[in-house]
């Protein structure tokens, strides 16, 4: 059967510019037939990451040009294949990281970017560990290389990346101190971490009381002035992994400047003769130069995370589910900082 001859209609959520979530627009159009190496993927679940929140403000480091369709990752079912793609992929579920484009009922993707989703895993559950799971796995095991018996600090332990990172660390036999607002402390404890209130002015002192000899790694998505305190928590041989600048999300000005300042600070710290190291984690690092190696690493890491989810080692942290037509409400809830886990977008009924 030639799957490319059927016209596919897609419904997309468009971010037209720097607007409030209510300013998102709905667009319907026909997708072109998949080209060589491409598939049509019907969205079963996508979600709201911190990246979309930054993109809405025009403050993402690698900001896409407006207008565009947000959506950093997606889980879906292949409905058509292009030339050179195995037609037996049709009807099977896959996950993919897209950076943009995920908030659509159907989209064109390169078949090489697809990672199989295990049977029996709910699509919304799988969605929570795509970009979040890859990020957490790579920071823990590739960047910081934290070993069993270590102690780490996870800022924002109730968030999408943070909650996944806590679970991966606990599975690896690592003690976790996790920051969150007091209302999320029960959820953080349930994940296996020791909660500390991030609103407490003495937060870093509380962490030092829990780990008086210092910690082996700090995972910091906040940046800003607090990054200095994160650095000071490290013991000799410890690693600071910075992966965001949430502290500057509401500031006006150049979207790249806070990140560039952070890069410079981390580089200087790495030159100090104290046995500690600092890294900035970039999800897309290496893709432009070595796309095949990038894809292979991503596939390996996401396959590991999805298998842990299938085995029950990871518990999906679905904060809420919204139909695609209510993407504005999904974005607003994610930005409210009142939820644990990831806000997921699913097809309209």
Automatic annotation (TrEMBL):
InterPro entries: ADH-like_N, ER, GroES-like_sf, NAD(P)-bd_dom_sf, Zn-ADH-like_protein. GO terms for molecular function: oxidoreductase activity. Coiled coil: none annotated. Residues 23-345 form the Enoyl reductase (ER) domain. Pfam families: ADH_N, ADH_zinc_N_2. PANTHER family: QUINONE OXIDOREDUCTASE-LIKE PROTEIN 2, SHORT-CHAIN DEHYDROGENASE/REDUCTASE. This is NADPH2:quinone reductase. It comes from Pseudonocardia cypriaca. The lineage of its organism: Bacteria, Bacillati, Actinomycetota, Actinomycetes, Pseudonocardiales.
């Amino acid at each position: 059967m030639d799957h490319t001859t059927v016209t596919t209609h897609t419904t997309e959520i468009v971010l037209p510019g720097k607007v409030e979530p209510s300013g998102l627009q709905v667009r319907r159009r026909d997708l072109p037939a998949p080209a060589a190496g491409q598939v049509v993927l019907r969205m079963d679940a996508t979600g709201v990451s911190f990246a979309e929140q930054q993109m809405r403000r025009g403050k993402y480091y690698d900001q896409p040009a407006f207008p565009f369709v947000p959506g950093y990752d997606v889980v879906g079912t292949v409905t058509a294949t292009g030339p050179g793609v195995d037609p037996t992929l049709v009807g099977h579920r896959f996950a993919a990281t897209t950076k943009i484009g995920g908030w659509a009922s159907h989209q064109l993707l390169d078949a090489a970017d697809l990672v199989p989703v295990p049977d029996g895993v709910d699509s919304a559950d799988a969605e929570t560990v795509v970009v979040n799971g890859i990020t957490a796995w790579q920071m823990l095991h590739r960047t910081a290389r934290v070993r069993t018996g270590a102690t780490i600090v996870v800022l924002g332990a109730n968030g999408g990346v943070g909650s996944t990172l806590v679970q991966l660390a606990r599975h690896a036999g690592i003690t976790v101190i996790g920051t969150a607002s007091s209302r999320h402390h029960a959820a953080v404890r349930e994940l296996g971490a020791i909660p500390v209130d991030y609103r407490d002015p003495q937060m870093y002192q509380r962490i030092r009381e829990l780990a008086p000899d210092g910690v082996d790694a700090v995972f910091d998505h906040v940046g800003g002035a607090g990054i200095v305190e994160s650095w000071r928590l490290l013991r000799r041989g410890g690693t600071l992994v910075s992966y965001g600048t949430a502290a500057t999300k509401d500031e006006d000005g150049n979207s790249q400047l806070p990140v560039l300042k952070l890069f410079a600070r981390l580089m200087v710290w790495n030159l100090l003769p104290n046995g500690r190291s600092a890294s900035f984690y970039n999800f897309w690092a290496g893709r432009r130069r070595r796309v095949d190696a990038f894809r292979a690493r991503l596939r390996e890491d996401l396959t590991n995370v999805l298998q842990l989810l299938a085995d029950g080692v990871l518990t999906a942290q679905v904060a809420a589910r919204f139909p695609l037509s209510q993407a504005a409400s999904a974005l607003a809830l994610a930005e409210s900082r009142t939820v644990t886990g990831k806000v997921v977008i699913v097809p309209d009924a």
